[in-house]
TrEMBL record:
Subcellular location: Secreted
Gene that this sequence comes from: LOC115631049
Name of the protein: Chitinase-like protein Idgf3
GO molecular function per UniProt: chitin binding; chitinase activity
Species this chain originates from: Drosophila lebanonensis (Fruit fly)
Domain GH18 span(s) in chain numbering: 25-441
GO biological process: carbohydrate metabolic process; chitin catabolic process
SUPFAM superfamilies, alphabetized: (Trans)glycosidases, Chitinase insertion domain
This protein's GO CC annotations: extracellular region
Matches recorded under InterPro entries: Chitinase_II/V-like_cat, Chitinase_insertion_sf, GH, Glyco_hydro18_cat, Glycosyl_Hydrlase_18, IDGF
Signal peptide feature range: 1-24
Family: Belongs to the glycosyl hydrolase 18 family. IDGF subfamily.
C-alpha cells in the first residue's frame, strides 16, 4: 500500500512537472430549464440567460432523457421545450453570442424514472444503441444545438457513515476498494460498453462538426464506468461533478463539508471526498488538462440540526435530522440557492428575526481548502436548527484560481438558475458566475 501511494505521488508529480501551454479557460454554464418555470424571484427568464451568456463559453441545457422502452432520446418537458419553443429560444441566443456553444444534456438528476434504463442502454447492443444515437443526433440538429452532453444516471456509490472513529474510517475506506460497497457487479462489462457507445456516438456526431461532452455526476464512481484513456479522444470536454460528496438526503444523520477542495485532515473522512482527489484521478490516466472542467455548485446543502447536534456547529455534526425545510424560492428540502443563503447571513434586515428566518452564524475558511459553513443551533424545543455547507463568490473564485494554477480546462457552474441572478444579496447579478470568470481571466 505504501509503495503504491509513493508510485502514484511520483507519477502525478511527473505529470504536473511537464510543460503545458496555457489554454483559454472554459466557463461551462449548466442551465436547468426548470428555473424558467419557477415563480416569483426564482424565475429565470431568457433576459437572465442573455446576461449570463456574456460570461459563459458553453451553455449546457438540462435536460433531455431516455425512453425506457425504445432507448431513444426523449424530451422530458414537451410543453416547455417543444410547445413553448424553449429549446429554440435558447439556441437562438447564439445569434447575439456566436462564440458560445450550446449543448443538450441527457440525464442529469432530472431523468429519475426507471434509472436502470441507462444500464439497459449500455447492454442493448449496437443496433439498439444506434437508435439512441440517431434520435439524439436528430434532436440536436433540429434545434440547432452545438452538441450533446452525456450526464447518464449510472448507479451511485452507496451512502455510508464514515466519521465515527479512526477504525471505522479505515474500515469504510477499505470496504470501498475491496468490494463491500460495489453497486454494480458487471461494472467491468458496462465500462467496455460505455466506451463502445461513446466511440460510435462520436463518429456519428463529428460528421456534423458537433461537440460531445461527458458530465460525471456526483457519487458516480469514475473507475467503474469510464475508461478514461479509451474515451478521452472521443470527447471534447469532461465536466466533473466535484460537489455533493455528502448531502442531507444521502447522509441524513451527519452534516459535513459537501465540496472541500482538499482532503479534510482534522477528522476521519474518506480521502476521495474532495475536488483535488477527483481531478488527480483523471489526470493520472493521462487525460489532457485542457479537457477537464471542475464543477462548482451555486447552491448549498442544508441539514436540520437537533438538540443532540450541540451548539458549536463544527463539522462533522452528528445527530442531524435529514434535509432542512425548503427555501421560499427553491422549494426543495435540503437545498438553498445562493440568494437564500446570503439573506440568512447576519444583516440589518434579519437582526431581530425569529424562527426559520433568524440569522445563521457564518464560519469562513481562511485556509481556502475546505469551504464555508453556517449554522443556527436548535432552540430549547429542538426547533429551527440549521446547518449549511455552501459556496459563495469568494470560495468559487478560489476554486477558479485552483483551476487556473493547475492549468485545467476550466470551470463548470451547476447551475445558472441557482446563482443570485437577480442581485438580491448585494445588488450584483450573477455574483458567483462573475467571480469565477474574473479569476479565470
Amino acid at each position: 500500500m505504501r509503495f503504491t501511494t509513493i508510485y502514484l505521488s511520483l507519477a502525478l508529480a511527473m505529470l504536473l512537472s511537464q510543460p503545458f501551454e496555457a489554454t483559454a479557460s472554459n466557463l461551462v454554464c449548466f442551465y436547468d430549464s426548470r428555473g424558467f418555470e419557477r415563480e416569483g424571484l426564482a424565475q429565470f427568464t431568457l433576459a437572465d440567460m442573455e446576461l449570463a451568456m456574456q460570461f459563459c463559453t458553453h451553455v449546457i441545457y438540462g435536460y433531455a432523457g431516455l425512453d425506457a422502452k425504445t432507448l431513444e432520446l426523449q424530451v422530458l418537458n414537451q410543453p416547455l421545450d417543444l410547445q413553448k419553443r424553449h429549446f429554440a429560444s435558447v439556441t437562438a441566443l447564439k445569434q447575439k453570442f456566436p462564440y458560445i456553444k450550446v449543448l443538450l444534456s441527457v440525464g442529469g438528476d432530472r431523468d429519475l424514472e426507471n434509472e436502470e434504463k441507462y444500464i439497459k442502454l449500455l447492454e442493448a447492443g449496437r443496433q439498439n444503441q444506434n437508435r439512441f444515437i440517431e434520435s439524439a443526433l436528430e434532436t440536436v440538429r433540429r434545434f440547432d444545438f452545438d452538441g450533446l452532453d452525456l450526464a447518464f444516471q449510472l448507479p451511485r456509490n452507496k451512502p455510508r457513515k464514515v466519521h465515527s472513529d479512526a477504525g471505522m474510517a479505515w474500515k469504510s475506506f477499505k470496504k470501498f476498494f475491496t468490494g463491500d460497497f460495489i453497486v454494480d457487479e458487471e461494472a467491468d462489462t458496462h465500462r467496455e460498453q460505455f466506451t463502445d457507445l461513446v466511440r460510435d456516438l462520436s463518429h456519428a456526431i463529428k460528421q456534423y462538426d458537433l461537440l460531445l461532452s461527458l458530465t460525471v455526476l456526483p457519487n458516480v464512481n469514475s473507475s467503474w464506468y469510464y475508461d478514461a484513456p479509451s474515451i478521452i479522444n472521443f470527447l471534447d470536454i469532461v465536466n466533473l461533478g466535484t460537489f455533493d460528496f455528502l448531502t442531507p438526503t444521502r447522509n441524513p444523520e451527519e452534516a459535513d463539508y459537501t465540496a472541500p477542495l482538499y482532503e479534510v485532515l482534522t477528522q476521519n473522512r474518506l480521502g476521495h471526498y474532495n475536488v483535488n482527489y477527483q481531478m488527480e484521478h483523471w489526470l493520472l490516466q493521462r487525460v489532457p488538462l485542457n479537457k477537464l472542467n471542475i464543477g462548482i455548485a451555486s447552491y448549498g446543502r442544508a441539514w436540520k440540526l437537533t438538540k443532540d447536534s450541540g451548539v458549536e456547529g463544527t463539522p462533522v455534526v452528528s445527530a442531524t435530522d435529514g434535509p432542512a425545510p425548503a427555501g421560499v424560492q427553491t422549494k426543495t428540502p435540503g437545498l438553498l440557492n445562493w440568494a437564500e443563503i446570503c439573506q440568512l447571513l447576519p444583516n440589518p434586515g434579519n437582526a431581530n428575526a425569529k424562527g426559520n428566518a433568524a440569522p445563521v452564524r457564518r464560519v469562513g475558511d481562511p485556509t481556502k481548502r475546505y469551504g464555508n459553513y453556517a449554522f443556527r443551533a436548535a432552540d430549547e424545543n429542538g426547533d429551527y436548527g440549521l446547518w449549511i455547507s455552501y459556496e459563495d463568490p469568494d470560495t468559487a473564485a478560489s476554486k477558479a484560481q485552483y483551476v487556473r494554477a493547475k492549468n485545467l480546462g476550466g470551470v463548470a457552474l451547476f447551475d445558472l438558475t441557482l446563482d443570485d441572478f437577480r442581485g438580491q444579496c448585494t445588488g450584483d447579478r450573477f455574483p458567483m458566475l462573475r467571480a469565477i470568470k474574473y479569476r479565470l481571466l
